[in-house]
Amino acid sequence: MAIEMKVPSVGESVSEVTIASWTKKDGDLVKMDEVICELESDKATFELPAEADGILRIVAPEGTTLPIGALICKIEAAGSSTAAAPSVAEAPKAAEAPAAAPVATKVIDVVVPAVGESISEVTIAAWSKKEGDSVKMDEVICELESDKATFELPSPENGVLTIVAQAGQVVPIGGVVAKITVGGAAAATSQPAAAPTASAAPAASETSYAAGHPSPVAAKVLAEKGIDPATVQGTGIGGRITKDDAVKAEKPAATPAPQTAQPAVAPAAAPASQEGRASRREKMTSLRKTIAKRLVAVKQETAMLTTFNEVDMKPIMDLRAKYKDKFKEVHGVGLGFMSFFTKACAIALKEFPLVNSYIDGDEIVFNDYADIAIAVSAPRGLVVPVIRSAEKLNFAQIESEVVRLAGKARENKLTIEEMTGGTFTITNGGIFGSMLSTPIINAPQSAILGMHNIVERAVVVNGEIVVRPIMYVALSYDHRTIDGKDSVSFLVRVKQLLEDPTRILLGV
At residue 72, what are phi and psi to the nearest 5 degrees? Predict the structure, then answer.
């Protein structure tokens, strides 16, 4: 009896995933809890383990986008592997069969797969193969585009491509976009090699179509690094470039050899000027496309406004200078600015609940807790892990969480749960040198605080001009729920707490 494996639920806001890569091949013997494939959503990448011992039967190839609950593969009981024995035993007979065998062909329809609950049709964005081209299983033949995302469509079999729907045509889910003719000439070319079976079989496996081809996740990592997949040695099945290969890969140093091969007639100045004015194109990753889509949606769907203030950082800097060594000795973690800002915001959110709310339909949802998200720049793009119940944490606990989440973000190991459910966000553009900015709200939240760089400025204190380390802070908020009075008062309260950090400790 075969066990059906389906896409598991991976988070409240995730409705579909993409099969990034299969770590096992169709027909492989797998064991329970052994990782068989890697799934990718617009927020994270995670592994799918086998639910039982048995033989793997792949239903959805790499690159397929599936909704939650869709069938990915089946696992047959190990005993059924005996069914494969007759085909092996009959292999020599097949070699002796007359040449009529290669003539038998079959035609497979390539249809638009289900790509999400709310998507009923897609557009053929571009064909990567031409009419009559020979294609291999899992090789990308075209790019489909919906109103939410763009994804690639792989060939289900080896064969010859016949295009049914042209580029730019809109096709419903389940509609036929192409046909693959399996057999015929493709099969005939493989028959002569049957004589030297001992040597031909290994050669075919060594030069598999997967050799040198990156998995979707690996392709994204290589694109972000600007590395040509052709320069990377794959260690995966059939020579496929895996995610680990891509992470470890380094961009090769440029060699002058190609330039020396240029004809002597070509003037030296021409190649130099062309090289200096070169441009290149890189396909957007799914994470970057999702970020872009959401940021534009926030600008269009909210009445976003930003208010500014400045904070005298001297009291916090003096406090850190006095206790940072002792703090690290006792708690094992450094004392940074983020714990002060997180605690100040948590206190102010409790006093101004509208800033800690969000709109859901015709209702405003108020949160009695402060789950504060911290924006982190990761290799794959901007991610926003969440510090849960920040109002209950002390400085050491907050600093530990910041270090833990930032480390996981840099290693691309954040889970869906660690990036969802925030009620308020803090972003620090100051670490990159930003003086002032208007941060965009992290939907469905209603507000975000922007920190900036600290610069010594001349200010007036008690009627005297003094030099103080000043930071500009910005609060972007949704004016549909938060009025000017609440937003300004919230920012003033944060300023008050930061300029007198004793208030944070005493809760006054």
Answer: -105, -50
DSSP label of 241 = B
CA distances from 418 to 20, 64, 142, 421 (A): 21, 26, 35, 8
For the entire predicted model, the pTM comes to 0.51
Exposed, middle or buried by CB within 10 Å (0-12, 13-18, 19+), for 494? Answer: buried
State the catalytic residue, choosing from 33, 109, 244, 483.
Answer: 483
Instruction: Please name the amino acid found at residue 209.
Output: Y
479 given a catalytic annotation: yes
Residue 162 · residue 184 · CB < 8 Å: no
- 331 catalytic per annotation: no
Nearest to 357 by CA among 349, 348, 366, 347: 366
109, 228, 325, 479: which one is catalytic?
479
Q: Chain-centre distance of CA 344, in angstroms?
A: 32
A 10 A CB-CB count for 461 gives 10
Q: Please name each of the domains of the chain with its CATH number.
A: 1-97 (2.40.50.100), 287-506 (3.30.559.10)
Best-predicted range by mean pLDDT (28-37, 199-208, 261-270):
28-37
HEC sequence for 121-174: EEEEEEECCCCCCEECCCCEEEEEECCCCEEEEECCCCEEEEECCCCCCEEECC
Q: Secondary structure of 173-231 in the HEC alphabet?
A: CCCEEEEEEEECHHHHHHCHHHCCHHHHHHHHHHCCCCCCCECHHHHHHHHHHCCCHHH
Give the span between the Cα atoms of 451 and 430, in whole angstroms.
6
Q: pLDDT tens-digit profile of 410-457?
A: 888 888 788 888 999 999 998 889 999 999 998 889 999 999 999 999
Q: How far apart are CA 241 and CA 210, in angstroms?
A: 8
CA 316 – CA 313 distance, rounded (Å):
6
